[in-house]
Amino acid sequence: MATQARSDPAAPGRVKLQFPASLQVTYQGERPDNVYVARMAIARRNAALDAASRQWNTAKPGTGVGRLPYQEVQEVSQLRLLGPEAVILPNGYLSNPLSLMVDGYWAFEKVGEALPLDYVPTPVN
């Protein structure tokens, strides 16, 4: 199956997503949030230290990790369908939030920015 994003003729404004396995999206139109960049730097450093610690068992005494090469952090997200398709409503929300697993930058952003569909802000006096 090819990746498809098509309008639903039965419900105008809705879009159905269908793709095999997973889909990776890289957005290059802005710089990632500084908190995300810091978290990615820590995760990369920890992964490098874990890999180095596995090699230290056979390394000569006095061997160190050294300086890690710079890797630019991009807004990369991974999507995985948990059913046959995911339907996006005209307001941008999923009709079934459990139909799509999101990881990476979109997961980082959505945790802090998503609100329930029925959210109504309380007036400030």
Characterise this structure:
Helices cover about 25% and strands about 25% of the residues. The chain contains two helices and six strands. The radius of gyration is 21 Å and the shape is extended. The chain has one domain. The strands form two sheets. The protein has a three-stranded antiparallel sheet with strand order 1-2-5, with no helix packed on it. The chain has a three-stranded antiparallel sheet with strand order 3-4-6. The chain has helices spanning about 35-55, 105-115, and strands spanning about 5, 15-20, 20-25, 75-80, 85-90, 100-105. With about 120 residues, it is an alpha+beta fold. The longest helix has 23 residues, at about 35-55. Strand 1 (about 5) and strand 2 (about 15-20) form a beta hairpin.
Summarize this, please?
The protein is of the alpha+beta class.
